[in-house]
Amino acid sequence: MTGGFAQRHIGTDAAAQGIMLHALGFDSVEALVQAAVPASIRSRPRATTDIPPAATEAEALAELRALASQNRTARPMIGLGYYDTLTPSVIARNIFENPSWYTAYTPYQPEISQGRLEALINFQTMVTDLTGLATANASMLDESTAVVEGMLVARRASKSTSNVFAVDADALPQTRALLAHRAAAVGIELLELDLAHGATVPESVFGAFVQYPGASGNVWDPSGVIDAVHVAGGLVVVAADLLGLTLLRSPGSLGADVAVGTTQRFGVPLGFGGPHAGYMAVRQGLERQLPGRLVGVSQDAAGHPAYRLALQTREQHIRREKATSNICTSQVLLAVMASMYAVYHGPEGLQAIATEVAQKAEALAARLRSYGLSLTSDSFFDTVRVTTPGPSGRVIERARSLGYQLLWVDDATVGVSVDETTTDADLAAVAWAFGLPEDEFAGAGEQGERTVPFADAAPLAAVPPVLRRRDEFLTHPVFNTHRSETAMMRYLKQLADRDYALDRGMIPLGSCTMKLNAATEMAAVSWPEFSRVHPFAPEADVHGYLALIEQLEVWLAEVTGYDAVSLQPNAGSQGELAGLMAIRGYHRANGDLDRTVCLIPSSAHGTNAASAVLAGMRVVVVACDEAGNVDLGDLRAKISAHASELAALMITYPSTHGVYEHDVLEITQAVHDAGGQVYIDGANLNALLGYARFGDLGGDVSHLNLHKTFAIPHGGGGPGVGPVAAKAHLAAFLPSHPFSQRKDHAGGVFDGGPISAAPHGSASILPISWAYVRMMGADGLRDATAAAVLSANYIAARLREHFPVLYTGEGGLVAHECILDLRPLREATGVSVDDVAKRLIDYGFHAPTMSFPVAGTLMVEPTESEDLGEIERFIEAMIAIKAEAQAVAAGEWPAADNPLVNAPHTAEAVVAGEWTHPYSRETAVYPVHSLVRTKYWPPVRRIDQAYGDRNLVCACPPIEAFA
């Protein structure tokens, strides 16, 4: 094992690995991995590598500081959905920089996720209150992708048979570009209309999209347009600024069916484009059409209120190619921050911020009018478009000379957006850029000695009274209670204490790779040179970001065997979609318009099929054999049946079943021989890095999960980054963007259309993966893979006599995860996989992945970061639970009253009232002695999921519910 950072990242040292190897019968870690990884796929040693030697933590931070210094810390006033904001320090310290929040996983085990589920209920309530609609989900990936999802909701729910969707000409340009790219793939025709200036909506539309306020800043009344679309049988999607909605009428009150947008300006740093939490809310009757995650209120076994994910959560695994969305995650960490911004400020505070923003815009407009300049609209909230007497570029450059970034609209128009950080001195500097006489500004090119006072300006001066907000919002006590920092700090601590994250113990979730998110990797995310940068900033101001991005692209291409990498996709599902869209673009460029069939193994992750459908492909399922491998015979038959229309094969390697398939080269060759392309899902890359490369296996394109293999934390269910990597012939079809600072990348010129709202997706968390690769080096990455494979095989070997290991490769070995079959346990004892998962909570563990990819199983992935002590603790817990199940089968405890079916046990459950169970209190909560000092206490008992779906509540319950 290498020294330095890698030695601290990898949990098992040489002594521990020796113990594990002895149990497995191998002399070295290398010998184990060589036995597990088929010789046919192993990478040949290369004379050179693009991965630099491992840096120390201090060296990596110094290099990041040097890159950060190349970013010009200008004041961004570009707008277009992105604003500078002030993150309250209590939120920055206690959420953004707190591993209790950022190392948690998606709340599939709701009993140990009550803190972040409450925070997400707050988020949903905030969104529904401000948008005036009935139900909101737990966040979207960004505003533009939320608009696309809104369009798809309208298409599904509309009574119209039309295939036409009307789009506001004053929509954000990045949203229009994304709509065009996505609509083309699914056969939707877009019709762009100047809705604000009277364009008539035709009767033949299934829906329409309105930006409110418009990208130009214009505030207008869209209710007439909404009524016209409804008459046509269509649905209306409105993208609304949440801060503006504290002063403006809500989309729901105007008749909108769906509201979407971003919550970025609610205390979430710009971060060169992300990660930020988008939002979506729908009117009553559309709840079951919502994509993504929805948090609901149910009750636990004691009848107490409890939160959990509701309805169609992870519908991709259930409906697969019939899924209506491929989004299986959300931006939880950022949604939590935005919700707490609302909790911190309350309705009065948010309205005061919005009022001041509107006053700043009015004051700037008044000053510019005094110079004889005209605005494109006099009705606005925070953005003005100014007609310049000369070339607009001169105004842009004058502003840049003072450190301000304005929006170039065209040769005669400049846009300016103000926000909560804008000062009266900033307004004066911008006014000077438009032509304030030099003698009225102290020292040409110097800032700050003159101001444009805004306190007396009338907010929304020209906005029609009918568009002023009159109804209340955020009336729930949670938004009106935590006013002091002491109260806020304690509230956030209480929520964190209800959750289980990596800072408490191992989260052995198969397919999810919950590895260490080291503090040094995380450090740069908070630096202002990375966090306060607008995604559309000019190239000259972001050299540091662009250099970091190019380096990471090159490194990822090297370790995967591809030629080009785009970092734009901001989730694994979006990386899947980008890869398939690249394949679609490649076939269409070659004139192969009929190549639309996508072959997908039956074991594949559910998002694969959903992504294929959204890329305009038709899914054909390929069978798997008893060992969990792709059935070669069935694959060849499907290829033969669809040879002329074969677009792609999607496979996961190692397989979703956690084994290295020996026939992968034969599989990829068969697809290529038929003219198809091979997409390899990168979810399990942590089992390959340093030993094999997707590109060498015959892969043409893959997505990678930086939130898995490359150490970006999962954040309670987001953020994520899902870069797409491809061979040279697909590079031209990788994601582009209308505001990209550069079209040329290390692997070529990308021109495939956008996949996310920002040119580089969730750019502010890329320094995490950059630091991981930089500090691990090529040898460290290889050692991490070996350690992960060793730990998985050790768990499989130790537990095999208690729980059958469902799938193995040659020699009985697995890859980086193993599937424990609990179906025989249920048949013998009546104890279910749910009972085992909930009982693990009593032992102080987050359960492994339940019933995926096979119902009634647990998929265990320890990763390389866990030490032998924690691994042994998990093994001990699983063996003890098996013994408890056997005690139930032997009649020592009744089938309806035992520690397993009653798990998890809360403190209240064991101390309140008379204890009537046939097992002791100690057995309930201290099943092993080590828990006496380290006990994690779940805040609720087992949650009734069915009750929650029958009684759907997706907003903050009243305080009386907890009495």
From TrEMBL:
The keyword Oxidoreductase applies. Its cofactor is pyridoxal 5'-phosphate. The modification N6-(pyridoxal phosphate)lysine is found at residue 708. It catalyses: N(6)-[(R)-lipoyl]-L-lysyl-[glycine-cleavage complex H protein] + glycine + H(+) = N(6)-[(R)-S(8)-aminomethyldihydrolipoyl]-L-lysyl-[glycine-cleavage complex H protein] + CO2. SUPFAM superfamilies: PLP-dependent transferases. NCBIfam families: gcvP, PRK04366.1. InterPro entries: GcvP (IPR003437), GDC-P_C (IPR049316), GDC-P_N (IPR049315), GDC_P (IPR020581), PyrdxlP-dep_Trfase (IPR015424), PyrdxlP-dep_Trfase_major (IPR015421), PyrdxlP-dep_Trfase_small (IPR015422). It comes from the Bacteria. The glycine cleavage system catalyzes the degradation of glycine. The P protein binds the alpha-amino group of glycine through its pyridoxal phosphate cofactor; CO(2) is released and the remaining methylamine moiety is then transferred to the lipoamide cofactor of the H protein. Residues 784-905 form the Glycine dehydrogenase C-terminal domain. Its EC number is 1.4.4.2. The glycine cleavage system is composed of four proteins: P, T, L and H. Transmembrane segments: none annotated. Keywords: Oxidoreductase, Pyridoxal phosphate. GO terms for molecular function: glycine dehydrogenase (decarboxylating) activity. Belongs to the GcvP family. This is Glycine dehydrogenase (decarboxylating). Residues 7-434, 462-747 form the Glycine cleavage system P-protein N-terminal domain.
